[in-house]
């Protein structure tokens, strides 16, 4: 484990305690992370009770303070909403603060795994394991949230689905970092990002082999099918089919949350202009399963075409 880095590409800390073994089905280990330290132990009952009591007391003071400022009397319902609700919130916050719960995550060349340990070191951890070969697509969403024109947070989700569209594995959460990914190398976001990279590497070689053997690789987006083959990009929109020569595609880029494929040759094409306009295919990155794979594969085919 010493040669392995965490999901953000940094060295693992010496005190890290990986409480679950790496499952063989995820292949060669690429990165790992655990929230458990070697000296971590569950909090005793007295400590948990004390923290919960303190949280309840703080909540009560805050609740009564609000009723006083708002001039609420015991005769009205809002008084009890604050006088009872805030202490209850403080109680749960205190209990949560001292809860013993840790996660251990692994990213391998062929899959990923997540283990959750609760209440005691002696308990058997809950486990979730995904073999990449058991999934058909990866759906990634990254959304910035604003309130009154001010940035609040960014939510993210990495969800793998099977051939029938059923969910296989999901990594989701939020962070507050407008300028980029979380700076904390231990943030769960990095587990999702590292898993996406491993998924792309695993699938890309197989897609290239399919195309080189004369097959096609389809991508679905907004009711359309974009099918990549040897030297061509076929576009199906209902009953209409358009074929772009890979040699005539000038660029593929990601801009303002949209994937943009541009061809100057097809810019003046009547059929293309009618369907897309100005020789440009544009669609939302978040609406396409395997969106990053689509970009990687198309850029790789463009590079091979130029080399030829």
Structural notes for this entry:
This protein is of the alpha+beta class. The protein has three domains: 24-33 and 105-201, no CATH class; 45-97; 214-307, Pleckstrin-homology domain (PH domain)/Phosphotyrosine-binding domain (PTB) (PH-domain like). The chain is built from five helices and 14 strands. The protein has helices spanning 45-69, 77-97, 189-212, 270-275, 291-307, and strands at 29-34, 101-108, 111-118, 126-131, 137-147, 150-161, 167-175, 217-221, 224-229, 232-237, 240-245, 251-255, 258-262, 280-284. The strands form four sheets. A four-stranded antiparallel sheet has the order 1-2-3-4, covered by helices on one side. Strands 8-9-10-11 form a four-stranded antiparallel sheet. It has a three-stranded antiparallel sheet with strand order 5-6-7, with helices on one face. Helix 3 (189-212) packs across helix 5 (291-307). The two termini are 42 Å apart.
Topology, please?
Layout: E1 29-34, H1 45-69, H2 77-97, E2 101-108, E3 111-118, E4 126-131, E5 137-147, E6 150-161, E7 167-175, H3 189-212, E8 217-221, E9 224-229, E10 232-237, E11 240-245, E12 251-255, E13 258-262, H4 270-275, E14 280-284, H5 291-307
Antiparallel strand pairs: 1-2, 2-3, 3-4, 5-6, 6-7, 8-9, 9-10, 10-11, 12-13, 13-14
Helix pairs in contact: 1-2, 3-5
How would you summarize this macromolecular structure in one to three sentences?
This protein is an alpha+beta fold.
**Which strand order spans the largest sheet, edge to edge or round the barrel?**
1-2-3-4
Which range does the strand content fall in?
25-35%
The number of strands is 14
User: Helix count?
Assistant: 5
Work out the helicity level.
25-40%
Q: Which regions are unreliable across 5 or more consecutive residues at pLDDT < 50?
A: 268-275
Radius of gyration: 26 Å
Count up the domains. 3
The termini sit apart by 42 Å
Helix/strand order: EHHEEEEEEHEEEEEEHEH
Structural class: alpha+beta
Shape, please? Answer: globular
Please outline the major beta sheet: 4 strands, antiparallel
Mean pLDDT over the full residue set: 82
